[in-house]
Amino acid sequence: MEIGIDSFAAAMFNDTEDKATRNANAIAQLLERIEYADQAGLDVFGIGEHHRKEFLDSAPTMILAAAAARTKRIRLTSAVTVISAADPVRVFQNFATLDLISNGRAEIVAGRGSFIEAYPLFGYKLEDYDALFAEKLNLLLTIRDNEVVTWSGRFRAPLRNQAIYPRPVQPSMPVWLGVGGTPQSFVRAGTLGLPLMVAIIGGETHRFRPLIDLYREAGAKAGHAPDRLKVGLHSIGYVGNTTREATNDFYPGYAEVFTKIGRERGWPPVTRTQYDAQTGPTGALLIGSPQEVAEKILRHSEALGGVSRVTFQMDQAALPQEKLLKSIELIGNQLIPLIRQH
Amino acid sequence: MEIGIDSFAAAMFNDTEDKATRNANAIAQLLERIEYADQAGLDVFGIGEHHRKEFLDSAPTMILAAAAARTKRIRLTSAVTVISAADPVRVFQNFATLDLISNGRAEIVAGRGSFIEAYPLFGYKLEDYDALFAEKLNLLLTIRDNEVVTWSGRFRAPLRNQAIYPRPVQPSMPVWLGVGGTPQSFVRAGTLGLPLMVAIIGGETHRFRPLIDLYREAGAKAGHAPDRLKVGLHSIGYVGNTTREATNDFYPGYAEVFTKIGRERGWPPVTRTQYDAQTGPTGALLIGSPQEVAEKILRHSEALGGVSRVTFQMDQAALPQEKLLKSIELIGNQLIPLIRQH
Question: Are A330 and A2 in contact (CB under 8 A)?
Fold first, then answer.
């Protein structure tokens, strides 16, 4: 099982420097965490894509390119690329270049995004939400699999016998499907034989089993070998020396951020009782001691029929850099060995 | 006067490794040259944009982001961004992210491109060549100058009170106009009060004086202060220990590449006589000893009424990496001091 971290490159709002310096520092600290994760032996680091003030990741491949120049082994991925609102030609060019810079460590997680700002910003209609994703994904895979492409669709100018450069180092750049809770998305990933990255950021993880079964059944029906049908898990997580320390450290920032997002989406404010339930044995939040979180990951993996990759999203709770670095170190030196010896 | 280097990230074709490894090596060597230029005290490094097999720079900001992560002082620019075929929102997001990664060292040179592959690849018509450039440049500058934008045009979905993030470190990200020999382009740059980057890759440099005068006159007429009307020069160049060594080293690769490009554009094959004329005192090629090239740059600057930036394009002639590094070292340690003491 691969273990990694995902970040949305949160902007900084809480200190006294001017805005530009703050945000340059936020990026410098994020790059330091990626370097640290590489050195601590983590397998993968992902950067999200958002087009709003709270995040600095509207151009995630730029951050990944900078990270590629400072790391040696860790795989670098989007988490997710909002492919629906992007031009797959540019997306492929960015990731192929990342693959050259990183010498074969680039991956794409393509998704529809959980926020919707990208649609009006790039001139798309939310009513085309599903058609956009299907068409753009199809073009991305076509470009991945063919140097010279002839293609036409509704949402992008046609390509007639046109070549897309550069070509990546990897013979076939990994493209995962990043999904939330929509059953059709699980079926689509299975039918296409694409690895599946499931975001489970609340509730109980084992409840996703029926959706994962849908994925595996669709994959089998379409004739894809079981080893192609990999499942990854993106969850909010944070590892501390003890479970008590980790849960207490993480709560204040978590409550603030998710109460704020909840206000936009009509969720009730976060409560500590609810948080404690989700940090419990079957809850989605991967927060605790290395031992406890390792056991939880293995429990989730068993409940879902086997998980190939788990990524922690830990930097939305505005914890100080030294706490985040310590958490990465604990994941590399303690949690990963516990998972591997299992 | 600032001195720098521009590269088009030439793909490698002449060795025995497989294609992907070759191209990853080409990028690794390019990043090494940028690091070296930073350490040698050069002021700026630029990456071009091309969408063809011979070059690896279809996503130039990715290469610049990797370079930003490995350098401390050198400014990082496009050379040029083919803005006509791009979405200015994505372009700005990429460069603003570069500015955060580099802590305020990003610049954009916006141009129409000297090759035309980008137009059909992104669904644009060559007949809109000029209208595309004017509109996209206008949107780029609007986004640069305003966090929240309301805008509409012919070639891109409208923006209605929409914010573009992240914002850069620099209060106003430098946007230069990259031009060839079209008089209207010089007038446009002057009228807009944008710094001008002129590509002079052949002939005699002083012959551009009337066009540069057009730029300065248009700028004065539009009310821009003379110090805003900066002129930069992008030329093919290479510095060696002696003029004889530099010109002989550079010729074979130069002849091959420009004979090949000439075939597409209907130019006659390159000859040594012609090359020798252009490496002479008034020719455009900045090839020779540090002393000779420094004198030539000062001569060109005087002939053009003052030049603020000169960039050398040196890596298209397929010279080995050690020769290019040596050239960068000579530029930093010998040529720049000669220019500065003038």
Answer: no
CB contact under 8 A, B65 and A70: no
Q: Are B50 and B116 spatial neighbours (Cβ–Cβ below 8 Å)?
A: no
Instruction: Round to whole Å and give the CA distance between A317 and A269.
Output: 15
pTM over 0.90, yes/no: yes
Q: A298: Cβ–Cβ under 8 A, 6 or more apart, which residues?
A: A339, A342
Distance CA(A113)–CA(A177), nearest Å, equals 11
| Chain B interface test: which of A97, A102, A162, A172 (most B C-beta within 10 Å) | A97
What are the structural domains, with CATH classification, of chain A?
2-340 (3.20.20.30)
Q: Give the residue ranges of DSSP H helices in B10-73.
A: 19-39, 60-68
> With an 8 Å Cβ cutoff, are B55 and A98 in contact?
no
Q: What is the Cα–Cα distance from A272 to A195, expressed in whole angstroms?
A: 35
Q: Name the nearest CA neighbour of B260 among B113, B79, B118, B54.
A: B54
CA distances (Å), A224 to each of A33, A193, A221, A228, in order?
37, 6, 8, 7
- The reply to whether B20 touches chain A by the CB within 8 Å rule is yes
| Pair A78, A48: CB distance under 8 Å | yes
The residue with tokens 């936009």 is A264
Euclidean distance between CA atoms B298 and B138, whole angstroms: 34
CB-CB contact of B40 with B328 (8 Å): yes
The DSSP letter of residue B12 is P
- Long-range CB pairs of A271-275 (<8 Å, 24+ gap) are A275/A247, A275/A251
In A, minimum Cα distance to B65 occurs at A66
Q: Report yes or no: B310 and B6 within 8 Å, Cβ to Cβ.
A: no
Q: A-contacting residues of B 166-225, CB under 8 Å?
A: 166-171
From chain A, pick out residues whose CB is under 8 angstroms from the CB of B121: 89, 159, 162, 164
- Judge contact between B41 and B74, C-beta under 8 A: no
Report yes or no: A58 at the B interface, CB cutoff 8 Å.
Answer: yes
Selected for mutation to probe chain B from A33, A121, A148 (highest B CB count within 10 Å) is A121
B131-189 per-position pLDDT tens digit: 999 999 999 999 999 999 999 999 999 999 999 999 999 999 999 999 999 999 999 99
ipTM reported for the complex surpasses 0.95: yes
Residue with tokens 């895979």: A141
pLDDT digits (tens, 9 = 90+) for B103-134: 999 999 999 988 889 999 999 999 999 999 99
Question: What is the separation, in whole angstroms, between the first and last Cα of chain B?
Answer: 10
* Residue whose entry in the numeric block shows the structure tokens 């220019």: B339
Distance, in angstroms, between A147 CA and closest chain B CA?
A: 10
Instruction: Count Cβ–Cβ pairs < 8 Å, chain A vs chain B.
Output: 159
- Cα torsion at B8, B13, B19, B24 (round to 10°)? -40
